[in-house]
Specification:
heterodimer; A: about 230 residues; mainly alpha; about 65% helix; B: about 270 residues; alpha+beta; five-stranded antiparallel β-sheet; five-stranded mixed β-sheet; 8 helices; 12 strands; about 30% helix; elongated
Chain lengths: ~230, ~270
């Protein structure tokens, strides 16, 4: 059974959501030493230390940028705005981050919400209040208390899901974006000669498959734990 | 046989919060473990992110070659400066009236704007010595940095240059004496992208945090104008007034004693 990382504050003395632990186990940025470094950076940055804020920005900017550019309808200006808004909101809200070691996923959640908000506004001209509601909901979900899961080979799952995709446009798109990694969704649309929204949808569909499998694993663990069969494996 | 449990907003929330238990959790797990168009469609079009999405993106994106992020992926000093600027407390609204008055005063006094004469070529800038204080006492120069196979290629450029969108601009300021300076990009908002101070006459490379700052042009297209303001004292209100004046009118012609202003233009194409 994996251990929950120690936390300092009373609000942080809670179990991490199991889906988070499940994924953190296979990500180097939030593993072990990386998580401890993040926690230290967050503590200093939340106290107003600009150098620590800059360190967070330098470390996570490439990932935030990649999340933003997975939406082909967002032009480069939009992507730049999403990146800026993400860090502005993050630094304004660092004190609300319950588990500082979860900085990476938290930043990427903000980035995705910022990107989706832009996309939504672009598509439907919805009110700005909506994204505030989204982030409030996301914060609530991040704070939800859940038990630890068994260890999972998430990276292997992602790799397998890509390989299981039937040959065709979706696999090609996913490969270009997630495996080769050098092209934005917009650039992939140009290269493949298809519409931007089609590329966004292909990437979102792939993410949905991965997410569904992760949710299945989380639900399985929860089911086993609630009947006392999960702890012993 | 029971109906399949498709994931929806309520079910997702229960899974993430840990409310889902026992037999129901096992049924959901069994269902989600197999391909389901309805569930995939729901998850793909949900339109908002939860905490699982952040962790999922981290897992997915870490598979890509993160160890060597491209130049457009890495952070840059000017973007960082913009973020820091947005984190500063906003000025109280009651001061806006003062800014408006200052803007009018600034325009009335006039600023030195020499863009027109520079866009077509180099004007007779004969160095810093002997320049009257009330004349243009600052000059903005720049180089263009382009990604190269091994290292960026940097070349000096003149106002009016046509540059590709993957270029970045490296600015150098020449001043005739002690001055406070601000560099603005004359987009519609007249964004201040750098502020600095010169203790004596000379040339200063625009740096942020002790590191050379490059202004990325990615995402921009067409004519881009950058303005340098310099004055012995350049307080926030004066700067704001100048920013508003420049972004509003985009030009002013009468020379004035208070602020020196130089402007360069590139076309991103």
């Amino acid at each position: 059974m994996p251990q929950v990382a120690p936390r300092s504050g009373p609000d942080r003395n809670r179990a991490k959501p199991n889906h988070v632990l499940y994924l953190e186990r296979v990500t180097s940025i939030t593993d072990g030493e990386g998580a401890r470094q993040d926690a230290a950076l967050v503590a200093r940055a939340a106290a107003g230390d600009v150098a620590s804020q800059r360190a967070i920005y330098d470390k996570y900017r490439p990932l935030v940028f990649r999340v933003a550019r997975s939406f082909a309808e967002l032009d480069p200006d939009d992507v730049a705005d999403v990146v800026q808004e993400t860090f502005v909101r993050a630094f304004q809200g660092l004190s609300r981050l319950l588990d500082p070691a979860r900085l990476g996923p938290w930043l990427l959640t903000i980035a995705r919400n910022r990107a989706l908000t832009r996309l939504t506004r672009r598509r439907a001209r919805q009110e700005a209040a909506e994204d505030l509601q989204r982030e409030a909901e996301a914060r609530g979900e991040e704070a939800a208390e859940m038990a630890d899961p068994d260890a999972g080979a998430e990276l292997e799952l992602v790799r397998r899901l890509i390989s299981e995709l039937p040959d065709g446009p979706e696999k090609e798109t996913v490969h270009l974006f997630y495996v080769e990694g050098s092209l934005s969704a917009r650039e992939i649309a140009d290269r493949l000669g298809v519409g931007k929204s089609a590329i966004t949808m292909r990437l979102e569909r792939f993410r949905a498959k991965v997410k569904r499998r992760v949710l299945a694993e989380v639900a399985r663990i929860r089911g086993e734990e609630s009947t006392g069969r999960g702890k012993g494996g | 046989m029971k109906d399949p449990i498709h994931i929806d907003e309520a079910a997702l929330r229960r899974v993430l919060s840990g409310e889902l238990r026992g037999e129901e959790a096992r049924r959901v797990a069994e269902h989600l473990g197999d391909p389901c168009e309805a569930c995939d469609a729901f998850l793909a079009s949900r339109g908002k992110a939860d905490s699982l999405d952040g962790a999922l993106d981290l897992a997915l994106l870490e598979r890509t070659p993160l160890k060597s992020p491209g130049p457009d992926e890495r952070g840059n000093d000017l973007e960082w400066a913009r973020i820091q600027r947005r984190l500063r407390p906003r000025r109280p609204a009651w001061r806006l009236a003062g800014f408006a008055v200052a803007a009018v005063a600034l325009l009335a006094a006039g600023v030195v704007l020499r863009m027109g004469s520079r866009a077509g070529g180099e004007q007779g800038w004969d160095g810093l010595k002997g320049r009257a204080v009330e004349r243009a006492s600052a000059r903005l120069r720049f180089s263009v940095s382009l990604p190269g196979p091994a290292a960026p290629v940097v070349e000096r450029a003149a106002s009016g240059a046509v540059v590709p969108p993957e270029a970045s601009l490296l600015f150098r300021v020449e001043v005739s004496g002690p001055a406070r300076m601000a560099l603005l990009r004359l987009d519609p908002e007249g964004e201040v992208i750098w502020e600095g101070r010169a203790e004596r006459a000379g040339a200063i490379d625009v740096e942020i945090g002790g590191r050379p700052a490059a202004y990325p042009l990615r995402g921009l297209a067409g004519r881009q104008r950058f303005a340098l303001l310099a004055a012995p004292t350049l307080d926030a209100e004066t700067l704001e007034a100048a920013r508003r004046a420049l972004s509003g009118s985009g030009s002013a012609s009468a020379p004035g004693p208070a602020i020196s202003l130089d402007l360069v233009e590139v076309t991103v194409r």
